[in-house]
Design goal:
The structure is a single chain. By secondary structure, the protein is an alpha+beta fold. It is 56% helix and 12% strand. The strands form 3 sheets. A 4-stranded antiparallel β-sheet has the order 1-4-6-7, with no helix packed on it. Strand 2 and strand 3 form a beta hairpin. Helix 4 packs antiparallel against helix 6 and helix 4 packs antiparallel against helix 10. The protein is elongated and about 145 Å long.
């Protein structure tokens, strides 16, 4: 034992941590539309930008998102999982410290003297006892310490920390997804409200056409066919309104679930797109640092870190392990003597465990850990590529939305003017009702297309915020263009 103690400093100096050290993956190659400024990385606990949804300038929307984050059951489950991961960190750290235990025992024993070659023994009074029985009370404790010469415990702690970070990123992603779904659902409800309002305005236009043809018929210059044609268009357009109202009810139901309410408990949602703001300038390019704040990328990076640390754990299993320890005990047949030095015993020990033959199990475990690390590395690269592709598509879509909206606005203005002129021509008898109905149908299509274009623009901006983890955030200063008023 003394020799081992004298060699202990040399053993500690020779201690090392086996296995590869984790290195943050290199930044992906520059992508079209991105600045080459390195991979970037968000610090733990500093995930998606808080309050990115406030860019739409709606207190009602902000309140719904806040309620969803506070009440959503999926988020509650994610938080509980994160708490469990943090307790695993504490457990892993505890294993690196000396392990101290206390014990106490009360026994009733019978000695088998024959096992030691004795038939019996005599007491001081001359009485012969063959197999004596007696009480024994013991208190004591012990301490053990794993020297962790090759870093198995250190790598295990590193792996646990990385796993906990991955769960942290999952929680951030859950918050981001829930907030994004609420925002998109509210925008969808606003678009449906606008479309319903547009449909009702168009029905008023159809009723105006019916009234116009009836007046011509009553004046003796029109025909019943013209009246029936106008009425047919009116009834045909009425058929689409119930479907939109059903879609609105379903959208409200989905929103209620997101905020933790039943559809009946959800307050009225009279949202319209005009009540929301868009950023003054929507970017056409984003630096890769903003995309790299995405929780899914950071989670994949943490998974890679954990898999790399697992290689070290598996490698350390191939090397010897040294444990130091000490035990102290007090034993007596009389409880009152337990604290007397006379009945004290102790031992100091050093133990070494080295793998000799395990049928290839330990080496197979190491190879499996290396394969897991390679898989995690490929998953990380794929996650980054998909993230860049998603944001690139959204940037392209937003740019297209701007041009499409301008075209739709111009088309709606032209269709409105054409409808106005067609009606005047019909009123003075220069054209038939079919020309008016065709112009009215074109106007209707242009109005509905304009609503769809505005809806796509808002939704794609919301998706861009989610895709960049709220990393692109600019104060809203410009409201979206409003469609031209119906009528003529």
């Amino acid at each position: 034992m003394r020799r081992f103690v004298s060699l202990l400093p040399l053993i500690l100096l020779g201690a090392c941590t086996v296995g590869p050290d984790f290195k943050t993956p290199a930044a992906p190659p520059p992508q079209a539309g991105y600045a080459s400024d390195g991979a970037g990385r968000a610090a733990l606990g500093q995930g998606p930008e808080q309050g990115w949804w406030t860019a739409f300038g709606s207190p009602e929307l902000d309140a719904l998102v806040t309620r969803a984050i506070a009440s959503n059951h999926s988020l509650a489950a994610s938080k509980a999982t994160l708490e469990k991961a943090r307790t695993r960190i504490e457990a892993a750290r505890g294993r690196m410290l000396p392990q101290v235990n206390a014990d106490a025992r009360a026994e009733y024993q019978q000695l088998n003297l024959s096992a030691f070659g004795f038939d019996a023994f005599s007491t001081s009074g001359g009485q012969s006892i063959k197999n004596p029985r007696f009480d024994l009370y013991t208190i004591g404790g012990g301490v053990t310490y794993d020297l962790d010469l090759f870093g198995r415990n250190r790598r295990a702690l590193e792996q646990t920390l990385a796993d906990a970070e991955a769960v942290q990123r999952q929680t951030e992603a859950a918050h981001l997804v829930i907030a994004g779904r609420v925002v998109q659902q509210v925008l969808a409800i606003a678009a449906l409200n606008d479309r319903i309002a547009t449909e009702r305005a168009l029905l008023a236009e159809d009723e105006r056409n019916v009234s116009l043809t009836r007046k011509r018929q009553q004046g003796g210059v029109g025909t019943l066919v013209e009246v029936l044609s106008a009425q047919a268009q009116l009834e045909d357009d009425r058929g689409g309104l119930p479907q939109l109202e059903q879609q609105l009810a379903e959208a409200r139901g989905m929103l209620a679930v997101l905020v933790g309410l039943s559809p009946a408990e959800l307050e009225p949602t009279p949202f319209t797109l005009d009540r929301f703001l868009l950023p003054a300038q929507v970017p056409v390019a984003l630096p890769s640092t903003l995309v790299h704040k995405r929780p899914d990328i950071l989670e994949a990076e943490a998974r890679l870190h954990a898999a790399t640390a697992a290689i070290g754990v598996a490698t350390a299993q191939l090397y010897p392990n040294v444990t130091l320890g000490a035990n102290l005990s007090q034993s007596s047949s009389v409880p009152g003597d337990l604290l007397s030095n006379r009945y004290r015993g102790f031992d100091l020990f050093a133990g070494l465990t080295a793998p000799i033959f395990h049928g290839g199990t330990l080496k197979a475990q190491k190879r499996g850990a290396e394969a897991d690390a390679r898989a995690a590395a490929e998953t990380y690269q794929q996650t980054v590529l998909e993230a860049f592709g998603q944001v690139s598509n959204l940037l392209s879509a937003i740019e297209t939305d701007g041009r499409s909206l301008a075209t739709r606005q111009e088309s709606a203005q032209i269709a409105q003017r054409s409808l106005r002129l067609s009606r005047r021509s019909f009123e003075v008898g220069n054209s038939g009702v079919l020309q008016v109905l065709d112009a009215s149908r074109t106007y209707q299509r242009s109005q509905l297309a304009l609503v769809d274009a505005r809806s796509r623009q808002y939704l794609n901006v919301a998706r861009l915020y989610v895709a960049t983890a709220g990393g692109w955030l600019e104060a809203p200063t410009t409201a979206a263009s409003t469609p031209p008023p119906a009528g003529g």
